[in-house]
Amino acid sequence: MGKRRFGGLSGKLLFLTIAFIMLTEIFIYVPSVANFRNNWLKDRLTTAGVAAAVLSETNTIAPRLQEELLRTTGAVAISLDQGSRRSLIAMSQMPPEVQMIVDMGDMMFWRAIMESFETLFTPSEDLMRVIGAGSMGKVMKVDIVLPVGPLKKDMLAFSVRILGVSFVISIVTASLVYLSLRALFVRPLQRLTRSMVHFAEDPEDASRIVQASPRDDELGDAEAQLAAMQQALNRALQQKQHLADLGLAVSKINHDLRNLLASAQLFLERLEHVPDPTVNRLAPKILATLDRAVAYTQAVMSYGKASEEPPKRRLLALSRVGDDVCDVLGLNEHAAIQFDNQIPVVLEVDADPEQLFRVLLNLCRNSVQVLEAERDETLVRRIVLEAGREGRGVWLKVSDTGPGIPPMLRKTLFKAFQSRSKTGGTGLGLAIAAELIRAHGGTIVLEEGGAGASFRIDLPDRENV
Fold first, then answer.
1. 13 touches 178 (CB < 8 A)
2. Range of the domain at 58
3. Which residues contact 26 (CB under 8 A, 6 or more apart)?
4. Which positions carry the signal peptide feature in this UniProt record (predicted)?
5. Residues 6+ apart with CB under 8 A from 247
6. Residue 449 and residue 356 in one domain
7. DSSP H or E segment with residue 384
8. Beta strand pairing status for 338-341 and 100-103?
9. What pLDDT digit, counting tens, does each position of 189-220 carry?
10. Alpha-carbon distance 362 to 131, whole Å?
């Protein structure tokens, strides 16, 4: 993450803060300069009107008094309108043409603003005529002619003062606002950015997860959500690494395991020729079990690669599949666990034979491991298979009388490595079962209530079945 200067968020924030405050000061300056011009002209009219009203009581005005009056007001000519007559009170010389006429009695707000800026851009040597109401005696109006220069000079000086003060206020205010916003927003955002970059360098390192601050605002919520997202990503990466390690381990032992199983198959083929009814009955089942063991090794490796084969669906006698599971787990002669296959003999299901067998085997093996872990001999230990047809589909239940599924595991029950609540479990059995059922277009759920754990599977038929 490169080091930014003025082009970063902080610099832009400072610039925009100054710009907006200066814009606000301009809106203040415009009416202020118009008001200053009006007051300046009113002061000149008042001074000229009062002096002229006093002097007008005499028939003649001495030249020295006229010069003093003109000097005080800055005018070149002053006249009074007393209703019945109009009097020229003082005049330095015959004024040339007047370029601007200002009637203070008809001064609207917007007009005052426009004429103020017109004054600022008028040459200083031009003359302006200002008309206003008299302030004493019988004087109705005061009419003075004065050069634009003095007014323009004072207006420019006022503009410099107010703009200077405005600029200082803008800098101070902008700095305070900038420092406040930087402390409240920019620095926390920079911290979040650094945390994301730091986490991205090694997302599998849990120590790099951002630590949410105790802020109770939107940024605090963002930090909490980012921490939760990083934790979820960290767990997902660890699980994926676990799967990769599992696939690598299985691939290493797969070759040697195949050789061992092949040797066992040869021995069993020899046993088939022994004239013993028990051997002849059990040998084919043991061979089938060995074949499935090879297939399961491949299946675990396939799951680690997320490449499970699509189901090859056939019509199956569901009760026979349950009996095969019972034989493989050795539940027919189990001393403590009772296996109760209540599936109707005539019930048929449209499914892949091997994949459905794996699903039932995983579910029943989990139940066996849980029930065998119980040490109290008074407890009932039973596994029950139930099934039936509903419309164009079959439902199947696998239930046991164990302690059930802990509440903390139910949300992630069918995720890999999330349901290892029993000793020696890998956390893959339910994940594999859920994946195989979904491949058939079906669902598997944990039913609430009742003793122990009860899983319900719904398998729809194919369209052409």
1. yes
2. 9-176
3. none
4. none
5. 300, 301, 304, 305
6. yes
7. strand 382-389
8. unpaired
9. 888 888 888 888 888 788 888 877 777 777 77
10. 105
